[in-house]
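Quick check before the chapter quiz. The format below is the same one you will see on the exam, so make sure you can read both the input and the output lines.
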Amino acid sequence: MLDTFTFTPIQGENIFGFNVLTRGTSDPATPNPAGLIYNAVITYDLPDVVWRPPIVNTKRAIVKNGTTLPIKFRLRNTSGLIRTGQNVYLLITGPQGEVARFTRGHGSNGLRFARGNGQYIANFHTKRYGLQTGVAYTVSVNDGCTGQALGSLTIQVFGKGTQQHGKK
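Here is the expected output.
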């Protein structure tokens, strides 16, 4: 039986290595050795996430509940800024687990990519997710092949429902 598979590694130096076990044969009908892949490994250099305003360059990473937060980032590897779209997704998690997932080209939860400047953007509409005020949420960019987080940061929601100065 012959198995095939495909993969889309992140741009950069990618190494696909495997070991082949060969068995010689003395049968004249099969003069070539038969091969069997018994170990396959894909190794590649994961890029760094470069967060873009408005989610960075502030004293506190906070967002008002009921608003839309544009989440922007770029990817950079040892060769510099990556200007081609990569197999990544944006994940927002909270104390109860996954809140939102943004993937490339999937409707309202789409992660858009600008070819010219290599920037990704997702619009996080906080009112759609029932977020809790005062709670920390993690925003992460993940590798689409392994699910590994390439970079993350924490945001906190404020606004309706918070108690300020002893008042409701």
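If your answer matched, good. The radius of gyration is 23 Å.
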